[in-house]
Give the backbone structure.
Amino acid sequence: MTRQMFHEGLEQLNQEILHLGSLVVEAVDLSTQSLFTGDRKLANSVIAGDEDINELTLRIEGRCLALQARQQPVAKDLRLLHVCLLVSLHLERIGDLAVNIAKIAKRLERTSAAEPYFDLLRKMSAQALEVLRQGIKAFADRDVELAASLEDIDEPIDEMFKEILSRLLHPEEKDEETSSEWSTHIALASRYIERIADQVVDMGARVSFLVTGQLDGQYFDRPAPDLQRQFGQ
Amino acid sequence: MAGYLATNNLSASFGGGVQAIENITVEIPANKVTAIIGPSGCGKSTFLRCLNRMHELVPGAKASGEVVWDGRNIYASGMDATEVRRGIGMVFQKPNPFPLMSIEDNVSAGLRLASGRIGKAKIAEVVERSLKLAALWDEVKNKLHKPGGSLSGGQQQRLCIARALAVQPDVILMDEPCSALDPASTQKIEDTIDKLKKNYTIVIVTHNMQQAARVSDFTGFMLSKEMGEPGRMIEYGPTNKIFTMPERKETENYITGRFG
Ligand SMILES: Nc1ncnc2c1ncn2[C@@H]1O[C@H](COP(=O)(O)OP(=O)(O)OP(=O)(O)O)[C@@H](O)[C@H]1O
Ligand SMILES: [Mg+2]
């Protein structure tokens, strides 16, 4: 493998990550739509589409391995390979979460009790989709500022998640009676959406590392954490 | 601390006005391995040879600036160049043992030259210790009287390391010590380097970036901007840093293979 082929390989890797990103955006978009509409066909298409996401993730992993084995990359090439591997795993996990949401969409009983929750879930989904799009854009543009701002975009999602949980635990008087199965589905759906955004925030930290070589300020020679103190013997 | 080196505006030229290196100021920490990398002709060997006053052995060659070794400038008047070269040893690219001289005598050659008359027992002791340090003892202990030229290239290079160690230097300079060796011999030399840094400061010039990444604690990248321009130290820092996040574009381009 010549150096020229190596650099082309890195560019292809970059493109594959962006392709993976667009597949995952679509999965999240469709899965949340199916959650609100109960469209089983849509939900099934998300579940089936996960196969492609997994395939592409494996392909990316294989490419990362081959490029590392044959070229001993350093500096920005090393950082790119390292970050592509991690970002692909984040994206793949987001794809899995979209599948989880699609599965709930198929089983969720649609009652009028859902409306106040759906209101919040819709806002959460829109925000999560926005975080995801911006996260991928941060990677594509190597934009450290955008990457750092993901945490701020994520914050209202955490708030809405907490609100849904507390409302499920302490229903308001006007809320209709609901089954525990139904409540569990709503709790899980909101949890999955919240997890999607968390994955993107972590992805943002990888993008920062890609550009700056810094992870949480200090990367190399980090002291080992005092596990004894934290977890006992 | 013994073995600490620092250069201050070190420049060097050859006769006929060839300026080889210019204004190099770096600190080379004791008991660490420092690798010098950079394209051919950027002045790596010249820099290394200035660190123990071997550069001036070339007719017409001059060095200016300072090399501070244990608090003393080796270029100060009154410093004895021979003494400097004893304390700061050199191992070359091509193994250069005395081919007809016995293995044993090869190791002790410098010692006998430096210390005049010393006892046989003392010499035997130094030979054994040096060969052990250079990780060659087990392979030659039963044939110490055989000629140095009878060894393989990798063994000859370790013999030269043993020879450099015999005079008990603080610092060992190595100029592409593995470029003529196969991977197994290279690994032996790298293992030796790693072991030696406990007691010695090592500066190694290498064209093999992976080798620099493997063996060194600090890396310096040298470059001459154009053909015929003097080489400068473009970037110098911890090896982890240089190979993941170099500060300078030139360093990044060079180590990632984006030349020209
Ligand atoms: N004996 C000499 N007389 C004149 N010029 C010399 C002499 N030795 C080296 N030079 C010049 O000095 C500059 C630096 O040479 P040097 O050997 O230090 O480079 P280098 O980085 O060690 O190269 P390489 O990686 O090829 O060993 C080059 O331009 C070279 O042509
Ligand atoms: Mg050289």
Q: What stands out?
A: The first helix of chain B runs from residue 44 to 50. Chain B touches chain A at residues 209-210, 213, 238, 240-241, 243-246, 251-252, 255-258 (CB under 8 Å). The domain at 5-96+171-255 of chain B is CATH 3.40.50.300 (Rossmann fold). Chain B has a mean pLDDT of 92.
